[in-house]
Amino acid sequence: MEQDLKTGKKKKACERLRNLINEYPDDLSLREKLARIYYDSGFKDEAGKFWILSEPQNFEMKEAVEIYRSSLSNSGNAMLKDIVFRGDKNKLPGYTLNIIQELEADSLKKTRHIPDFKRKTRAKGSYTEDKSSFISTIGFYLLIGAVILIPVLGCIKFFELISSLFSN
After folding, report:
1. What is the rounded CA–CA span in Å between residue 6 and residue 29?
2. In the 3-class helix/strand/coil scheme, how is 95-109 assigned residue by residue?
3. Backbone phi, then psi, for 35, in 5-degree steps?
4. What is the pLDDT of residue 116?
């Protein structure tokens, strides 16, 4: 990611950081790095999206978070759906936990629902092709073959019967 930034590949660096955030949702420093890239690129609202869970360290962070909040009409529900925090809330620092609880309370008050995102658990390299789909595919082709073959065999037997009747 650092190499991508040095070579001017900000989009690639952002993609890598987003993947890391999905893999390590409890590491708020990844969100802060991504927010910095967005802020430096002029996308203050997107920077605010990733800085909202961090305690503001400077005016830039405060400004970006305010722009982000107003872009979503200060809707706790909309912000929770947008930031998609999949980490363990018990591991969060007090400031971040308070922000999430504030957003959840607003969401519950206005929509009677709190969006909840489960941690992604698929392990790398554990993908296996569904064998039942392979068997069902073979069964489908056998059925199609039978539908075509039965009338053809029926016609052949019919012609054999007709020819045997007239050959005597």
Report:
1. 19
2. HHHHHHHHHHHHHHH
3. -60, -40
4. 83
